[in-house]
């Protein structure tokens, strides 16, 4: 499951336990509840907040809960749909977001990390890995939309989705997926919180920040169900009053 704490202006969402943090209904429901709480608190507080998502143990997240899915295509579709809502919550969250990748992030776990604005990753252990091509699973359209928005180098995107490349931290930084590389897990978490504090200190308006993020990645946001057209209309109305 996960825990949520607030450190000044920074919300820290922690995936707890030493397991693989598989994205099944219980964990995703817990994450969405935390994100909903964060969004509500952010709208009631003074300007300036940020989110850090971190995980305990060897994994950031090893993807969807394939053990629960078994051979059921209906269950697989359930989890794919559920993860789409988590992605939408993150992409619309009214504050900067930082993923502290303290372990392996595979498939849906890789997508979870990409839905954050910034990524800090440990160098000594862990890979980013889109495993679908190796496992024989097609990529859901919204996966591809988010991947294409966040992995902007064509060859890097090709290798991630068509070769199932396992990207270590330094390699991921070289191709622009990771922003900061740290020696180990404690340093990664600390650096992510430091970055989040710096971002929160800018005291940006959360609604404006979210609107700009959505306008940066309209196709990805549409793919997860965010009403991009409505958001763009709000921006036009605001601009007309200037």
How many helical elements?
12
First CA to last CA: what distance?
45 Å
Radius of gyration over C-alpha positions, nearest whole angstrom: 17 Å
The CATH topology is 2-enoyl-CoA Hydratase, Chain A, domain 1
CATH class: Alpha Beta
CATH superfamily: 2-enoyl-CoA Hydratase, Chain A, domain 1
Most strands sheet: 6 strands, mixed
Whole-number count of domains: 1
The ordered string of helix (H) and strand (E) elements is: EEHEEHHEEHEEHHHEHEHHHH
Give the strand order, joined by hyphens, for the main sheet. 1-2-3-5-7-10
Shape: globular
Number of strands: 10
CATH architecture grouping: Alpha-Beta Complex
- Average pLDDT for all residues: 93
Q: Catalogue the unreliable spans.
A: 237-242
Structural class of the helices, strands and pairings?
Answer: alpha/beta
Binned strand content:
15-25%
Give the helix level as a range of percent. 40-55%
Description:
The chain contains twelve helices and ten strands. It has helices at 25-44, 66-69, 73-92, 108-114, 132-135, 141-150, 154-162, 169-174, 185-200, 206-216, 218-223, 228-240, and strands at 2-7, 10-15, 50-55, 59-61, 97-101, 104-106, 118-122, 128-129, 166-167, 180-182. A six-stranded mixed sheet has the order 1-2-3-5-7-10, sandwiched between helices. The chain has a four-stranded mixed sheet with strand order 4-6-8-9. Strand 1 (2-7) and strand 2 (10-15) form a beta hairpin. Mean pLDDT is 93; it is low at 237-242.
């Amino acid at each position: 499951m996960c825990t949520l704490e607030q450190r000044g202006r920074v919300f820290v969402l922690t995936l707890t336990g030493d397991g693989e943090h598989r994205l099944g209904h219980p964990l995703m429901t817990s994450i969405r509840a935390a994100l909903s709480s964060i969004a509500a608190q952010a709208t009631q507080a003074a300007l300036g907040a940020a989110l850090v998502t971190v995980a305990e143990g060897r994994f950031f997240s090893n993807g969807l809960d394939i053990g629960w899915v078994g051979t059921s295509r209906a269950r697989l579709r359930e989890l794919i749909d559920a993860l789409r809502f988590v992605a939408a919550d993150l992409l619309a969250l009214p504050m900067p977001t930082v993923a502290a990748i303290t372990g392996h992030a595979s498939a849906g776990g890789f997508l979870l990390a990409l839905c954050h604005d910034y990524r800090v990753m440990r160098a000594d252990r862990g890979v980013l890995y889109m495993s679908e091509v190796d496992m024989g699973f097609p990529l859901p359209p919204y996966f591809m939309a988010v991947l294409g928005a966040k992995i902007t180098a064509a060859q890097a995107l090709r290798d991630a989705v068509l070769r199932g490349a396992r990207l270590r931290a330094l390699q991921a930084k070289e191709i622009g997926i990771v922003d900061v590389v740290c020696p180990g897990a404690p340093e990664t978490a600390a650096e992510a919180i430091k970055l989040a504090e710096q971002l929160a200190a800018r005291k940006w308006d959360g609604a404006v920040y979210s609107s700009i993020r959505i306008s940066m990645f309209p196709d990805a946001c549409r793919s997860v169900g965010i009403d991009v057209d409505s958001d763009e209309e709000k921006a036009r109305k605001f601009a007309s009053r200037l």
